[in-house]
Amino acid sequence: MAKILVTGGTGYIGSHTVVELQKVGFDVVIVDNLSNSSIDVLNGIEKITGIRPAFENIDCVDYVSMDRMFEKYKGIDAIIHFAASKAVGESVEKPLLYYRNNLVSLINLLQLMPIHKVKNFVFSSSCTVYGQPDVLPVTESAPIKPALSPYGNTKQISEEIIRDTIHANPCYQSTILRYFNPIGAHPSAEIGELPSGVPNNLLPFVTQTARGLRKQLLIFGDDYNTPDGSCVRDYINVVDLAKAHVIAVQRMLNKRAKAHVETFNLGTGRGLSVLEIIKTFEKVNGVSIPYKIVDRREGDIEKVWADPSYANNELGWTATETVEDTLRSAWVWEQKLANRVKAE
Ligand code: UFG
Predict the structure, then answer these.
(1) Nearest to 178 by CA among 197, 207, 152
(2) Contacts of 310 (CB under 8 A, 6+ apart)
(3) I need a surface site. Which of 55, 137, 235, 322 has the fewest CB within 10 A?
(4) Three-state secondary structure call for residue 15
(5) Do the domain assignments include residue 168?
(6) Which atom of ligand 1 is nearest to the CA of 86?
(7) Could you tell which of 123, 220, 296 is best to mutate to test the pocket of ligand 1, judged by most ligand atoms within 8 Å of the CB?
(8) This prediction's pTM
(9) Residue with the nearest Cα to atom 10 of ligand 1?
(10) Could you tell me if residue 194 is inside a domain?
């Protein structure tokens, strides 16, 4: 079976993708520097699939170590590149850290691909490249808007680097996946999101507030031009998202891609507001989330949701989990984390 390198494979989306890859029989090698994840994630993956993936604690920015890793695991067929810094606010404070981490790691991988004869590359991009789209739902052909943060800029520049590199080397192919807002956890609750420190993203803040770790959730603005005034996003179940990576890899390996670089939106096609998420979370889990409306957060997009029909038709992939089940899975996972802390 084909061998897949997953950078950032102990991270949130990475770990769920490793599980789905192993389930269909792929041989997985994880490279992660554990800067925003824990080695214990390997136990969770092993509990679900019965297989402990190969793991190397390497920073993708380190070219020499990456080169050695490719030598050690000869015959890698495809790379799924998740490893990146992703906190929007931090990227504004430390732009060079973001440009270095996100761009140098990508350039290293693209440079090492021909040396080690790896032909297929999947890239984690983001709907952030669309900024505030003029037309909703947003399709892949919507214009790319100036990035609102260095983080967002790294995703735009990375997409361009990939396109230019593959254009110059057409025996390589790449799939760019633009994620909307991934939420939830694996239904086994063996893996899930593990934010370090105060969460930036909505869902971990909601679950930590429900657990009592945070006093209240701050809702960033209720005066947007949306039905209830709070921002609207396309929240997608993380396992649904992970499954799309397996299909993207299979499509390239089976030579079914229609272009050297293909780009897909990965979303549900449905927009939900912050208040709708909170109300649904409270209802399905029988908990209450104390919250307060505060000022808008700088850089937030008012509303964005995907037109996923290109991915639906071409990949034969659709997000199937309901938001209710997804919000249940997020709460089960948070409770499991709480029990772990108690047991320690
Ligand atoms: N929100 C709150 N309170 C919080 C956290 C978030 O009200 O404590 C709101 C935000 O204002 C936003 C929504 O919840 O309206 C979602 O916020 P997230 O931070 O969870 O997600 P974003 O849509 O801002 O950002 C996400 C990813 C980025 C990615 C971006 C693309 O975190 O990596 O989507 O739009 F670039």
Answers:
(1) 152
(2) 139, 140, 264, 265
(3) 322
(4) helix
(5) yes
(6) 33
(7) 220
(8) 0.98
(9) 220
(10) no
Q: Considering only CA atoms, which residue is closest to atom 24 of ligand 1?
A: 300
Degrees (nearest 5) of the Cα angle 169, 180, 205?
Answer: 130
Residue 132 included in any domain: yes
Indicate if the pLDDT at residue 344 is higher than 80.
Answer: no
Question: Domain range for residue 70?
Answer: 3-182+237-266
pLDDT in tens, 193-218: 998 889 999 999 999 999 999 999 99
Q: In this structure, what CATH number is given to the domain that contains residue 253? A: 3.40.50.720
**Pocket residue to mutate for ligand 1, from 123, 151, 209, 233, most atoms within 8 A of Cβ:** 233
Q: How many domains is the chain partitioned into structurally?
A: 1
Pairing relation of β-strands 232-233 and 78-81?
A: unpaired
pLDDT digits (tens, 9 = 90+) for 133-173: 999 999 999 999 999 999 999 999 999 999 999 999 999 99
Distance (Å) from CA 64 to ligand 1 centroid:
36
Question: Is the pLDDT reported for residue 299 higher than 90?
Answer: no
| Contact status, residue 325 vs residue 183, Cβ threshold 8 Å | no
C-alpha 220 to ligand 1 mean position (Å): 9
Measured in angstroms, how far is the CA atom of residue 179 from the centroid of ligand 1?
A: 13
**Ligand 1 atom index nearest CA of 149:** 36
CA 27 / ligand 1 centre spacing (Å) = 33
What is the helix (H) or strand (E) element at residue 1, kind and residue range? Answer: none
Between helices 274-285 and 202-211, what is the axis angle to 10°?
Answer: 40
Classified as helix, coil or strand, 152 is helix
Residue 338 lies in a domain: no
Kindly list the catalytic residues.
151
DSSP string, 172-219: -EEEEEEE-EEE---TTSSS-----SS--SHHHHHHHHHHTSSS-EEE
Rounded to whole angstroms, the Cα distance separating 93 from 267 reads 29
